[in-house]
Amino acid sequence: MCPIRMPMRRTVRPTRRAGAAALGIGVAAGLAFAVAPTASSHGYTDTPISRQKLCANRTVSDCGPIQWEPQSVEGLKGFPAAGPADGRICAGGHSEFAQLDDPRGGAWPATAVTAGQGYGFRWQFTANHATTDIKYYVTRNGWDPTRPLTRAALESQPFLTVAYNGARPAMTTVHQGAMPSGKTGRHMILAVWTVHDTPNAFYACSDVQF
Fold first, then answer.
1. Which tens digits make up the pLDDT trace of 172-206?
2. Which end of the chain, N or C, is more open, meaning fewer C-beta atoms within 10 Å of its C-beta?
3. For 41-209, CATH number?
4. The whole model's pTM is what?
5. What is each CA distance from 159 to 8, 33, 136, in whole angstroms?
């Protein structure tokens, strides 16, 4: 009987070229990871309810991807001098959230409010962050709710500013203030959350009925 010979195992050693290629892939992956954007801060207003939250609640249909991520309306900060372009403010400048800029003929559901009355403006943060401030703007008398929001449609100064100076807000935060006085009929409130240590801010548009 002939003895059974086991095949000899060969140890495959990587060539210098293969090793360099693997190293290059590793470095590239590391660099990609290092420069990839991180979702470090997100939030939206739900009192008065914002357009993105109306979409997330399915109160309004045909909203596109914002219905799954109402916290993601993030654009460049510095509003009104900088930030999203006119007509793209409610979406934070994101084309994929363009449904938020669509006035829908002025038919967005509106929260009933009273001019000059105290009010609790509430934010829900899914990931809070160091904050410079949060400002609230309102549209001018005579603005056209059937057109996308522009800077010219807003009062030049916010009616409420809450300074944080780098502190982090609570995950659910309520700002006590007063609704602007001298308003009647349909208006829009724009809330702008300016992040302290990134170039960005978050935007939330809420339709209201005085």
1. 999 999 999 999 999 999 999 999 999 999 999 99
2. N
3. 2.70.50.50
4. 0.81
5. 82, 41, 6
